[in-house]
Amino acid sequence: MSSCALNAELPVASPEDLATICASVRSGATPAAVRVEAFLARIAQHDGVIHAFNEVHADAARARARAIDKMVASGRDPGSLAGCVIAMKDNIVMREGHTTCSSKMLANYRSPFDATAVEMLYEAGAIVIGKTNLDEFAMGSSTENSAFGATRNPWDSSRVPGGSSGGSAAAVAAGFCDAALGSDTGGSIRQPAALCGCVGFKPTYGRISRYGLVAFGSSLDQIGPFATTVRNAALVYDAIVGSDARDSTSADAPCEPLAPLVDRPLASLRIGVPREYRSEANSPAVAQVLERAISAARAIGAEIIDIELPLTDIGISTYYVIAPAEASSNLARYDGIRYGHRAKLSPGDDLEDLYSKSRAEGFGPEVQRRIMLGTYVLSSGYYDAYYKRALQARRLIKEEFDRAFASCDVVLGPTSPVAAFPFGGKTDPLSMYLCDVYTVNTNIAGIPGISINGGFADEAGTRLPVGLQLQAPAFAEETLLRAARMLEIALA
Questions:
Q1: Which domains does the chain have, with CATH numbers?
Q2: What is the DSSP string of 227-281?
Q3: Quick check: helix, strand or coil at residue 431?
Q4: Is 89 a catalytic residue?
Q5: Given CA atoms 357, 358, 362, 366 in this order, what sign does their dihedral have?
Q6: For labelling alongside 93, which of 22, 126, 135, 165 has CA 20 to 30 A away?
Q7: Which of 146, 183, 188, 358 is catalytic?
Q8: pTM higher than 0.90 for the full model?
Q9: Catalytic residue among 89, 131, 357, 426, which?
Q10: Residue 246, φ and ψ in degrees, nearest 5
Q11: Burial class of 217 by CB neighbour count within 10 A (0 to 12, 13 to 18, 19+)
């Protein structure tokens, strides 16, 4: 284990091969129950500082581990993820415990069903150890917007872990689990993975069922895994990928297992590096890590191709029209009557008072801001000027990526323009939104993206990880993961 620069008591996890671990559980050499107890002890010791979890499901995890060990003892195979301990972002529903979206609006909500991704993990023999913290309703880039308190970065507890899936990223980085699931609407898997020094993988839109994911932006949301290595992320991805009749946006596309393929180098890898990704907005450390990655890629025989993605700069404005518009619609159901927190009324209050008080009490400032923005851009007189125009820009962004991929296999750049920043370091909403400048267009175009750890920055005496992002054409997950694995090994 390595230690945090300012917090030696908070060790950061070392990568272990998940396939080897699961094979050991399936053979009976490593009891799943022993693994669960080790993770529970680590969480008990360190999560009081990190706050990666909203809930730890200790009893349920122990019971599932015992069931897996009994299957092994009886000669049955529990599955490819036997004994793999998973943390679940608290906007993915489970029968066990609560699903709160880190919001007062859903503080007491218990789901009557499991999300498809959760069902598939159970079928593969995985164990869910708890629900992780997030920016409320997945709206944020720092996990400071949680109604239950912020999550801290395991590398330096004075800094943010990124967001919105900051709890899942921190849980993996701190060694509280083998892997975790998050959701990515504009970078919410990749950006916290970058800031916490782990791998975060957002597959093509539709690859993984969204059934049971609490909706934020329905045309953008995608579930994906966090892990310590590309190989481990691929193994978890293999367990949850596939079409689902319960999700109308689920893609009916071939999805062969990719974990066995990721260590096969690509014979002729063409890496596109956009001029726009070498922006002056990048911190010096981020710029240095990117140039080192380019040199490492050349050293392993990859061809580096200079490309342009001129619409990168309009991605944030496009995203912050489309995503809030969809959020405004999706969150309308939380009115204090059908769903969510219900305010206490005063004498003389009417139905409109119930709606307004319930939503004002239940939603935090960032969620309220986005609902109002989304309602505005959808309103009469503004729909054509904002929402329709954003949809036109979305089509142009997708076409721009299509042209880029005609000359390269993957696109390389920073995941975030900065490393992990201090709490309260970005009080202006726009400065926070710009943390996702390199990630939002991946969702807008519906293509897959992955963040790997590219190196480290030294800031104010703290060693902080810096993420690198790779993007590939839609449904080219094999190419993306193999390229990411090649670069991961070259940078090790």
A1: 18-266+452-463+473-491 (3.90.1300.10)
A2: ESSHHHHHHHHHHHBS--TT-TT---------GGGTTS--SS-EEEEEGGGG-TT
A3: helix
A4: yes
A5: negative
A6: 22
A7: 188
A8: yes
A9: 89
A10: -80, -10
A11: buried
Catalytic, out of 142, 164, 168, 451: 164
Q: How far apart are CA 354 and CA 281, in angstroms?
A: 45
Does residue 104 have an active-site annotation? no
Q: Which of 225, 159, 172 is nearest to 53 (CA)?
A: 172
Q: In the annotation, is 357 catalytic?
A: no
Residue corresponding to tokens 């909203």: 54
Asked whether the beta carbons of 322 and 219 are under 8 A apart, the reply is yes
Amino acid sitting at position 200: G
